[in-house]
Design brief:
Family: Belongs to the flavin monoamine oxidase family.
Distance between the termini: 28 Å
Pfam families: Amino_oxidase
CATH class of the largest domain: Alpha Beta
Structural class: alpha/beta
GO molecular function, one term: oxidoreductase activity
Strand order of the largest sheet: 9-8-19-20-21-18-22
Number of strands: 24
Helix content: 25-40%
Protein name: Putrescine oxidase
CATH architecture of the largest domain: 3-Layer(bba) Sandwich
InterPro entries: Amino_oxidase (IPR002937), FAD/NAD-bd_sf (IPR036188), Flavin_MAO (IPR050703)
Largest sheet: 7 strands, mixed
CATH superfamily of the largest domain: FAD/NAD(P)-binding domain
Oligomer: single chain
């Protein structure tokens, strides 16, 4: 990796903008095919939405971190890079807090709700699984009920499915707060079904034993770090791209560290940032419209580190859920062979808006109070406390990923990866399988590389 000034007229076959897993995976495949690449990264690091940092002596995964059994592209990459994984701690009782503050300990994945609500949740899960099974995640707009599902919000769809408000609230929790990090009235039922289909089923999506199975020893940023190390000086940091001149004879990419000339370019960053680049000639109307109908969600990832995992002494797994708490879910996030204990919790969408209006100290106390409700007074006294706020990151501006507004997926989705002349697109936000996950980012990078290799043949 390099942060030196580029040669004034550096040339290659393919310029890649963004050194997240999508861009680095594309670059790796292109190099394997014999093509020369240059990767331009705006940040002073690689990894995009993967970032492992040491905060006050504690190793924290600021961004994405979990690996599930179905994420075959990620697992293949981890294996190829020689990285190790370890299982998330999950022994003992989970915690649920009901409406009114009642705290209940329970085992397994089924939340401790009234029998009639449990039956409704199981019925709704079957309905969503059937809808997801009828969807090709690579083409959700081709679903038999695509327009019908895309023109109604997920909240309205749930209201039409059941009168059980508690069942609706819990089903919504798994898609809205936990995944898309937007209120359920802000995205369509089709977007919700797509989220489920991208994970194999809604059942997979709500199963924390499955979806949050393992972590990488040393942090998931180890994947892009290793990919970038193999690419060496082809990866240039601190190089925000300002302009792409493109035409039949190739592309000229202008960055803060110099200009690169190539035959093709892959734009590999979140779609909400596409418009930060000046395209000459301008992108077609279709692309301009498409990019305006995508937006990232908002979530605070809270890290609370303690001198030991005290909850285990109480027979607790560290897993907690409640649609009534500020922290709607929490997990044991202790690092591999680390004597310290770490809890990770999440505050999403409008709840994040609410606490961001407070001072940093007030916000911290509100969040820790929520953890105390789950785990007891000791949770209120961490030795390290940190909030991941991707909404303030200049080159991300939200989390976890981008999704369409109502009707956007059927209206624009089929064109989201369509090249514009020599310009190609890659990001986890455009993935089918593994949408908004690292696995999807890798798949998207591989797909873009395949398209470019065919175009250069």
């Amino acid at each position: 990796m390099s942060n030196h000034q580029l040669d004034e007229h550096r040339e290659c076959d393919v310029v890649i903008i963004g050194a997240g897993v999508a861009g680095l995976s594309a670059a790796t495949r292109l190099r394997e095919a014999g093509h020369e690449v240059v990767v331009l990264e705006a940040r002073d690091r690689v990894g995009g939405r993967l970032w492992t940092r040491e905060i006050d002596g504690a190793m924290l995964e600021i961004g994405g971190q979990w690996v599930s059994p179905d994420q075959s592209a990620l697992l293949e990459t981890i294996d190829a890079l020689g990285l190790e994984t370890f299982a998330r701690y999950r022994e003992g009782q989970n915690v649920y807090i009901a409406d009114g503050g009642e705290r209940v300990e329970f085992l397994g994945e089924q939340l401790p709700v009234p029998a009639e609500t449990e039956a409704e949740m199981e019925r709704l899960t079957v309905v969503l699984d059937e809808l997801a099974a009828a969807m090709d995640p690579d083409a959700p707009w081709a679903h038999p009920q695509a327009r019908e599902l895309d023109t109604v919000s997920f909240e309205e769809w749930l209201e039409a499915q059941t009168d059980d408000a508690l069942a609706r609230r819990h089903i919504s929790l798994f898609i809205a707060e936990a995944m898309l990090t937007k209120p359920a009235h802000a995205f369509s039922a089709l977007q919700a079904v797509f989220m489920a289909a991208s994970a194999g089923s809604f059942s997979n999506l709500v199963d924390s034993e499955f979806i949050l199975d393992r972590r990488v020893v040393g942090g998931l940023q180890g994947v892009p770090l290793a990919l970038a190390a193999a690419l060496g000086d082809r990866v240039v940091l601190d190089a925000p791209v300002r302009r792409i001149d493109h035409g039949a004879d190739g592309v000229t990419v202008v960055s803060d560290r110099g200009t690169v000339r190539g035959k093709r370019v892959i734009v590999a960053m979140p779609p909400n940032l596409f418009s930060r680049i000046d395209y000459q000639p301008p992108l077609p109307r279709r692309q301009h419209q498409l990019h305006q109908h995508l937006s990232l969600g908002l979530v605070i990832k809270v890290h609370a580190v303690y001198d030991r995992p005290f909850w285990r002494d109480k027979g607790l797994s560290g897993t907690a859920f409640s649609p009534y708490e500020l922290v709607h879910e929490a997990y044991d996030n202790s690092n591999h062979e680390d004597e310290k204990g770490t809890l990770v919790g999440f505050v999403s969408d409008e709840h994040a808006d609410e606490v961001f209006a407070l001072s940093a100290e007030e916000r911290k106390q509100r969040i820790l109070t929520s953890l105390v409700h789950y785990f007891g007074d000791e949770a209120g006294e961490p030795i390290v406390y940190f909030e991941s706020d991707w909404g303030t990151e200049e080159w991300t501006r939200g989390a976890y990923a981008a999704s369409y507004d109502l009707g956007g997926l059927t209206r624009y989705g089929a064109d989201q990866r369509t090249p514009v002349g020599p310009i190609h697109w890659a990001c986890s936000d455009f993935a089918g399988h593994g949408f908004q996950h690292v696995d999807g980012g890798i798949r998207s990078g591989w797909a873009a590389a395949k398209d470019v290799i065919a175009a250069l043949a």
